[in-house]
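Hi F.,

I've been meaning to write this up properly since the lab meeting, where we talked about keeping a consistent format for the predictions we share between groups. The idea is simple: the sequence comes first, exactly as it goes in, then the structure tokens exactly as they come out, then a line or two of notes. No screenshots and no reformatting. I'm using this chain as the first example so we have something concrete to point to.
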Amino acid sequence: MGEGAKSLSETITLAPNPVNKCFGCGGANAGGMKLTFEQDNVNRRIVGRFVLGERYQGGGGMGHGGIIAVLLDEAMGKVCRFREVKAVTAEMTVEYLKPVNVQQEIIVEGRETEQKGRNIFMSGEIRDTAGAVLARGKARFVIIAPK
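Output, unedited:
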């Protein structure tokens, strides 16, 4: 089986790149989150499991709204890998449905909903381990180059 055919049935770990300075997923940003995701090639989605910890809290031990947006942006942005393109976030909306406890594990997921020309439309969710949706995002990414 060729490498391309093999990867379609596998999940690939997307660990922080040691030379990337991205705040969310880069390994070369000392103050960054250094997020690791899984690329699910079968379902064409990106999934991450995280415990944020106190560093990323807003008030009352709950996740800061900006950090919630970062998690959704990272998960949705990585979905561009399925099209093998570099794309940037053009616009994003976030629905904050329930507080995200920084001490409990959350699941962050992104997937593509549509493509029109250079625009790729994405959706994302943050859930708790019981499956309750805590936050939802929608975004439009614009392709800037092939990968």
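Notes:
The beta strands are 11-14, 37-40, 45-50, 85-96, 106-116, 119-128, 133-146.
Helices lie at 3-7, 65-78.

If this format works for you, I'll send the rest the same way.

G.
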